[in-house]
Every structure is written in C-alpha cells, then in structure tokens.
C-alpha cells in the first residue's frame, strides 16, 4: 500500500501550477443537486440572529452528496490556501526569516515600529547597495561560467538571495509609497477645488459689477401729462389722416360723376 502523502503530492503540485485544473468537487454543482440543496436549506430551522454581522450558520447533518455545496467555514486561525499559496486575514508583510531566507544588511524595523523608527532608515541607500552587489555577483557568475560552469550553482543562489532581499526592501517601502500617492491625490483634488471656487467667485464679482453698472444708469422720468399729450397727438394724427383720405375719395367721385 502506498504512502498517503505520496498520493497527495500530485494534487498539491496541480494546485500550485500556473494553470491549475478546477477542483474535483465542481462536478457536484449540478442543477439537480443545487435544487436539492436549496430545498434542504429551506427545511432547516432559521437561526435566531439574522443580522448582517452575525456569522454564517453551518448546517449540521448535511447529506454526504450535498456537503460540497455548503460554503466552507471561516478559517479559525485566519489562514487559508489558494492555488498552493497561503494567505492570511491580517495582511502583514512577512519577514525574510519567516520565509526562510537570510536577511542581508541592517535589520529592518517591524511594521509597528516603521511609523517611528522605520522612516529614519535610508532604504534608497540599501537598494543602491543591493543593486551594486547584484552587478558584482553577476560579473562573478559570468567569470565562473567561462571557467567551470559546474561551480555556478552557488553563485546563482547568491543572486537569488540578493533579488529576494531587493524585492523585500521594495515591499517594505510600499506603505510610504501609498501614503505619498494618497497625499498627491488629495493635494490635486484640493487644488482643483480651489481653482473652481476662485472661478465661481470671479463670476460672482463680474455679475455684481454688471448689476451695479445697470443700476447706475439714469432713466429720464416724464410726467404723466406728457404721456397723455403724446397719446392725444397720435390720435389727432390718425384722425387727420382719415379725414384727408375721405376728402380725396370724395373729390375722385365728383370727377368721375
């Protein structure tokens, strides 16, 4: 009988591959089983706490053929594995020692201390130092490959360690990068708001000046009698025109007759 660990090794390798196959329990998600699971859930008594913050209640005594249809429980230790990689609810950058890699250079402060002491560390200087070490070790690797390629494995491992340390220093700098990016974004938003406010105030001032200019125009006020006399003049002109037209037509009639 084979070792169970040996039988699980292909499965772990398949999950950790670049394009992993779907998990074997996807075949259980058929329309028939989904309907059976829905009916089974509806037949169960409702839990007392139905609030949004309440933990998802697990259904006990679920049939074996429907057990894969129930969502898994939340990890008690806050850790889970996806495609062979382990993740945690507490998104914290693991140290190189926790990853089993040697730390090159000065010890970096913990994340709790990065706000006070970590800011004093010159990460740019450390990145330059690692970059120079990478170039030097790469030249040494080329020299070893030209003489005895069989001895190049150790130097290749040194390059791998340098690259991992370089990448780790960059990841330690991510919080500062995110903070500076947020500051720049907020400053841009503030400048845009100030510019819009200044444009609105300028429009208001210009409108006020136009209104004040219109208010300063003097309109000559005529007495009411003047408007009455003007109306009478129009009526007299109209009556005179009608009278003249009547006289013209009368003279024309006399000539014709």
TrEMBL record:
Transmembrane segments: none annotated. Keywords: Activator, Nucleus, Transcription, Transcription regulation. It is found in: Nucleus. Residues 1-24, 41-62 are annotated as: Disordered. GO terms for molecular function: transcription coregulator activity. Pfam families: Med7 (PF05983). Its main location: nucleus. GO terms for biological process: regulation of transcription by RNA polymerase II. GO terms for cellular component: core mediator complex; mediator complex. Residues 1-19 have a biased composition (Polar residues). Gene3D superfamilies: 6.10.140.1520, 6.10.140.200. InterPro entries: Med7/Med21-like, Mediatior_Med7, Mediatior_Med7_sf. Component of the Mediator complex, a coactivator involved in the regulated transcription of nearly all RNA polymerase II-dependent genes. Mediator functions as a bridge to convey information from gene-specific regulatory proteins to the basal RNA polymerase II transcription machinery. Mediator is recruited to promoters by direct interactions with regulatory proteins and serves as a scaffold for the assembly of a functional preinitiation complex with RNA polymerase II and the general transcription factors. Component of the Mediator complex. Belongs to the Mediator complex subunit 7 family. This is Mediator of RNA polymerase II transcription subunit 7. It comes from Pseudallescheria apiosperma.
């Amino acid at each position: 009988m084979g070792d169970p660990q040996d039988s699980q090794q292909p499965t772990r390798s398949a999950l950790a591959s670049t394009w992993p196959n779907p998990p074997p329990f996807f075949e259980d998600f058929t329309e028939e089983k989904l309907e059976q699971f829905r009916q089974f859930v509806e037949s169960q008594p409702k839990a007392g706490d139905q609030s949004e913050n309440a933990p998802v209640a697990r259904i006990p005594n679920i049939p074996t053929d429907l057990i894969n249809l129930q969502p898994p429980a939340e990890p008690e230790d806050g850790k889970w594995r996806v495609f062979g990689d382990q993740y945690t609810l507490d998104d914290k950058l693991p140290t190189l020692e926790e990853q089993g890699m040697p730390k090159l250079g000065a010890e970096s402060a913990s994340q709790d201390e990065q706000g006070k002491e970590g800011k004093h560390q010159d990460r740019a200087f450390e990145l330059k130092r690692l970059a120079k070490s990478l170039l030097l070790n790469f030249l040494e690797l080329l020299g070893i490959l030209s003489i005895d390629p069989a001895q190049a494995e150790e130097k290749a491992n040194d390059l791998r360690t340098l690259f991992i340390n370089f990448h780790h220093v960059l990841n330690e700098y991510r919080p500062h990068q995110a903070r500076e990016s947020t500051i720049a974004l907020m400053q841009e938003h503030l400048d845009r708001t100030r510019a819009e406010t200044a444009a609105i105030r300028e429009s208001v001032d210009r409108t006020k000046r136009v209104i004040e200019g219109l208010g300063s125009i003097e309109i000559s006020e005529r007495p009411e009698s003047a408007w009455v006399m003007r109306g009478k003049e129009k009526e007299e002109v109209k009556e005179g025109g009608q009278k003249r037209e009547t006289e013209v037509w009368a003279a024309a009639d006399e000539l014709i007759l």
